[in-house]
């Protein structure tokens, strides 16, 4: 039994319209599902991904309108690492992000930047036989586009505290002292620790949880494994687009194990993904009450980089950070 890399990463935004402009407009991801937070249907849960809405490229945001900025600390994921194909892609993204008013930091085969709310991203040139998970965007050639997740980096006070749980409980393969590979039959991803004692604060621009991908058949068995390794795992929760189990790993990072499928085409056709407000069946009877209260969003496919500058801080940094 092997987990198939990262399924999705969920973060928090205090500004959903700006979030759509950045992720769909600048980064060129596809908004594949516009739905509400199942626990609070007055606010959005937005899902961005590749063209097909695949696990492995799915970055999602809970909307907390006006939420203050958070700060990543021990027990939180602090950076999303994406695959790109080449140095030419680094060149392209350095220029595109700069044109959008986002400051970037270049390393060898890497490019780092933050979203308008301070969530850190890194693009890395990776050689892999995993399928590139790409979205279509009129300003971004396919060979330069983001290709899905390579890794998440998390903060911990003590990387050794999680080792037994990750290796024996979840089958993570140690790569280096603070790095693990999570590779299944079809896809892989990485989990990397950076050490800090600092306490974080959940808020806009922070990651809420990372989900690892399981086949539907093995999902219950993964829950048993997590329980057996000492985690306080939730029961299986039906999220409609996938089923989920949640628990904290020993370093405090909130993990989810999510099924590959049924997926985002279970309630709208592929070509219309993300264009309508989707509600899970138990909320559908309340549509007339829910829909008018939600924040109006820009059309994600009309949003080009030129319309974005207004919403993004001059240097791409947070207040107090410059
Ligand atoms: Zn999730």
Summarize the structure.
This protein has 322 residues and is α+β, with helices and mostly antiparallel strands. It is built from five helices and 16 strands. It is 15% helix and 32% strand.
CATH architecture: Roll
In DSSP terms (H or I, runs of 4 or more residues), the helix count works out at 5
Count of separate structural domains = 1
Average the pLDDT over all residues and give the rounded result. 93
Fraction in beta strands = 25-35%
From the structure above, extract its key features:
322 residues, alpha+beta, 2,3-Dihydroxybiphenyl 1,2-Dioxygenase, domain 1, 8-stranded mixed beta sheet, 5 helices, 16 strands, disordered C terminus, binds zinc ion
Structure notes:
The structure is a single chain. With 322 residues, the protein is of the alpha+beta class. It has a single domain, classed as 2,3-Dihydroxybiphenyl 1,2-Dioxygenase, domain 1. 15% of the residues lie in helices and 32% in strands. The chain has helices at 16-26, 87-99, 160-169, 219-228, 287-290, and strands spanning 6-13, 30-37, 40-49, 58-63, 76-84, 104-107, 110-114, 120-125, 149-156, 173-176, 179-183, 188-195, 207-214, 237-238, 243-248, 254-259. The strands form 2 sheets. An 8-stranded mixed beta sheet has the order 2-3-4-1-13-16-15-14. It has an 8-stranded mixed beta sheet with strand order 6-7-8-5-9-12-11-10, covered by helices on one side. Strand 2 (30-37) and strand 3 (40-49) form a beta hairpin. The longest helix has 13 residues, at 87-99. The model is unreliable at 305-322 (pLDDT under 50). Zinc ion is lined by residues 8, 10, 209, 211, 244, 256.
């Amino acid at each position: 039994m092997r987990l198939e890399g990262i399924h999705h990463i969920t973060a928090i935004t205090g500004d959903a319209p700006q979030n759509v402009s950045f992720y769909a407009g600048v980064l060129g991801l596809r908004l594949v599902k516009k739905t509400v937070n199942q626990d609070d249907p007055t606010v959005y849960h937005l899902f961005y991904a590749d063209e097909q809405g695949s696990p492995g490229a799915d970055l999602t945001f809970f909307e907390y309108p006006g939420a203050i900025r958070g700060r990543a600390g021990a027990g939180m994921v602090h950076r999303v690492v994406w695959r790109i194909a080449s140095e030419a892609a680094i060149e392209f993204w350095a220029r595109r992000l700069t044109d959008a008013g986002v400051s970037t930091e270049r390393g060898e085969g890497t490019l780092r930047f933050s979203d308008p709310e301070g969530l850190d991203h890194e693009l890395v040139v990776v050689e892999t036989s995993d399928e590139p998970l790409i979205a279509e965007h009129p300003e971004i050639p396919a060979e330069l586009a983001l290709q899905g997740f390579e890794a998440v980096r998390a903060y911990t006070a003590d990387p050794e505290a999680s080792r037994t749980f990750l290796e024996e409980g979840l089958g993570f393969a140690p790569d280096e002292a603070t790095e693990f590979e999570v590779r299944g039959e079809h896809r892989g991803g990485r989990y990397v620790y950076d050490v800090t004692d600092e306490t974080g604060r959940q808020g806009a621009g922070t990651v809420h949880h990372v989900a690892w991908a399981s086949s539907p058949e093995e999902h219950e068995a993964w829950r048993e494994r997590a329980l057996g390794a000492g985690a306080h795992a939730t029961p299986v929760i039906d999220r409609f687009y996938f089923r989920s189990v949640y628990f904290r790993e020993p370093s405090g990072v909130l993990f989810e194990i999510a099924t590959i499928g049924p997926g985002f085409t279970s309630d709208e056709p592929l070509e219309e993904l993300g264009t309508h407000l989707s509600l899970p069946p138990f909320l559908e009877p309340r549509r007339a009450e829910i829909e008018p209260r939600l924040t109006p969003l820009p059309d994600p496919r009309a949003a080009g980089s030129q319309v974005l500058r207004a919403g993004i801080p001059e240097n791409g940094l947070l207040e107090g950070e410059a």
